[in-house]
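fyi for ur records
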Amino acid sequence: MGICTSCKGKIINRKTFLLLPVLFAIGAGTYWYLLEKDEAEIETSLSLYGNIDIREVRLAFNGSEHIEEIRVQEGDRVKKGELLARLHTERLQARVDEAEAMAEAQQQVLATLEAGSRPEEIRKVQADMEAAKAKAHAAQDTFERRRRLSERKLASSEEVEEAKAAADTAAAQVKATKAALDLVLAGPRQEDIAQARARLQAQKAVLALARAQLADAALIAPADGIVRDRILEPGDMASPQTPVLTLALVDPVWVRAYLPESALGRVTPGMRAQIYSDSFPDKSYPGWVGYISPTAEFTPKNIETLELRTRLVYQVRIYACNPEGELRLGMPTTVTIPLNQSPPQSRSPAASPCGEK
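which gave:
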């Protein structure tokens, strides 16, 4: 006996009605599972997007002179302390030679004063003293003899006066020679020695300045890096205001990214991170959060509503371990920061964890 069409419809509607709670339960369970999964992922990691950034140095000579040579080209890797370029040094070397000669001459003047009188000089003055005494003694004897002759009317008064003057002159010469001997024995005055020493220090300062100017004729790499631009060429006039080369520093390398205001409380300096690039998709680079800007950046400029506050971002630097130099300036990257790591110690570029396990 067949079932009527209307009865079949009622049976189907009843089955569908019974399945609706089941389907609803399955859908709700799936929704809550995905929601919980997304929340778990948000709580355990944070993804940021940014670009590789580095520091650059514009190298210039600390002096004005024509460039003699430039030893590097664009793209060359250089080491700290490497000679990159040099100025003409003929005039600078001449100044150094002149300053060295002046300093040496003044050094000898000071040495002469500090050594005092030579024995030969002392003996000469002593001999002059004895000769002056002998001459004074002879002049005194002549005066006495003429004075006695004058008493007996055997010598004129003029002859006596001449003998008296000669005796006085000889006695004065003895005193002068005695003073000269005292000076020779005492040696130079301390004031003269101090003045000579001060002049020597001034000459040494001039020499140091000349040597510094000669050293400034060499352009030395201040750090490891890559030559990015070669601005001047040999023969050009260099000056402190005109850069010669632009050097891109290879260390440190960091990702310049922006941290949402809502995630600011979950990221602190020193937290470890992993960096990924499109150029090497199968490779990750260890890094760490090195800097979070203390000021926010946002658009528009005025914060007016709660919705606009959530658009605040803070610049953050994630320093990267880049031993092979694969991360280059401007390269887009993705940064993943695990949020379930232990409280980190603050790091800086000098305290790199590269190589740590």
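Confidence is low (pLDDT under 50) at residues 299-304. thats all i got for now
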